[in-house]
Amino acid sequence: MFQSALIVEDHQSSNQWIQQILKDLGVMTVKYAYYCDDALLMLKRALEDNTPFDLLLTDLSFDEDGRVQQLRNGAMLIEAAKNLQPDLRVLVFSAEPDPAVVGNLFKQLDINGYVHKGRRDMTDLKTAVEYIHQHKKFVPAEFQQAVRSKNAHDFSTYDIQIISLLAQGTLQKNIPAILQQSGAKATSLSSVEKRLNQIRETLGFTKNEQLVAYCKDHKVI
Q1: Spatial separation of the C-alpha atoms in residues 187 and 173, rounded to whole Å
Q2: Which residues, at least 6 apart from 103, have a Cβ–Cβ distance to it below 8 Å?
Q3: Is the whole-model pTM more than 0.70?
């Protein structure tokens, strides 16, 4: 699990239960900020102390209370944080309902996950943190189509061969041997797994079955 996480949320009650969820998941160090400017300063100090945060969990909207802020919202914070620490993983926790806005967060800011505040948010938040720790992207079902369309993948001949074999019921471990017989390059099992992981991540999927179904629906195979 992550060693350290920074929560940026201006509602005290939400801030507190998010902290508890992260601690329950095994995050050793959990800190928080109510303002985006303060959060960026904490990220900078952590880097200077050689104790960088592993995860940034932030809302998008923050209530104005008269305090002047250079970073007025979560999107501005994410952009600044990524410029400061490119490998920082980012989870957005917001009530933003527009799939197009959420899709842009993945495409333009390269976030790792989005959880919508609502009925399932505690469950989704736990799942999202676990997914992101495993280098997977987390996208709620209701936003997946928007994210996929924003992250369209350009399928190569090699990609199509692999996915077609999966669609035919071929076990992933048997694909390299079949590819080798056809003269394809990079036919090791690790290369096949790596390529499938890359495609799934780009399209926002977690399972090969989802990828195969997507390719059938969009006439890729």
Answers
A1: 11
A2: 143, 146, 147, 149, 150, 151
A3: no
